[in-house]
């Protein structure tokens, strides 16, 4: 029975679990995103977010408290210098968990946990747009003379506008249709569904498309040098995971 079980023990002893959480939290602070199982990611989120809150206030007491949990001077320095300044205006919710599919071998649910403010692809996502000038359906008040003049002039203007519109529509109907068709074809490039590959979820597929990878052939043609170049642009996952994706892409092409 699970009476009183408020935390996920993750199949480990208390000391082992605390050491693992400290190591994962240090890695997350240093590298800004890590890949692990969904269960560990959810446990890490509850462990690391109170430490991130302390990182927003650079005091001796907070630094000593965080060091007691992490035991890593480099991670503590990174937290109070770089990360703390970046998340200073965020009132909680510093991390995001993105599911990436199942792991080959034991079929475990995998996920990527990252710091929200260090992901440039989602910067500004969900923010409300500025209201700007208000629009209303109600017409502005007009004087009696202006309203009468407008009603008298309206029928003549409508007839003239309709005649001009018919002539222009006949002359430009065919070219406009051709331009619109060309634009639709240009805006919809053909591509494969990269989410069919094991380990690539919707978020990873979107990021691969942003890097210029749209088809299985594009993914299968990647070399080690190209992977290293892409990792410099966006550190997505481990080299082993890249190789698994490339192997499955080649099998799908064959």
Walk me through what this model shows.
By secondary structure, the chain is mostly helical. Among the domains are: 17-122, Ribosomal protein L17 (50s Ribosomal Protein L17, Chain: A, Alpha-Beta Complex); 194-253, DNA polymerase, domain 1. 57% of the residues lie in helices and 8% in strands. It has helices spanning 14-31, 38-55, 60-70, 73-86, 144-187, 202-210, 216-220, 224-233, 239-253, and strands at 33-37, 95-102, 109-115. It has a 3-stranded antiparallel sheet with strand order 1-3-2, with helices on both faces. Mean pLDDT is 80; it is low at 184-188.
The gyration radius over C-alpha positions equals: 29 Å
Tell me the overall shape.
extended
Give the strand content.
5-15%
Q: Helix content range of the residues, please?
A: 55-70%
CATH superfamily of one domain: Ribosomal protein L17
Number of strands: 3
Provide mean pLDDT, rounded: 80
Number of helices: 9
Element pattern in H and E: HEHHHEEHHHHH
So, CATH architecture of one domain? Answer: Alpha-Beta Complex
Attribute tags:
3-stranded antiparallel sheet, DNA polymerase, domain 1, 50s Ribosomal Protein L17, Chain: A, single chain, mainly alpha, 254 residues, 3 strands, extended
SSE layout and pairing:
Layout: H1 14-31, E1 33-37, H2 38-55, H3 60-70, H4 73-86, E2 95-102, E3 109-115, H5 144-187, H6 202-210, H7 216-220, H8 224-233, H9 239-253
Antiparallel strand pairs: 1-3, 2-3
Helix pairs in contact: 1-4, 2-4, 3-4
Write a brief caption for the model.
The chain is mostly helical. 57% of the residues lie in helices and 8% in strands.
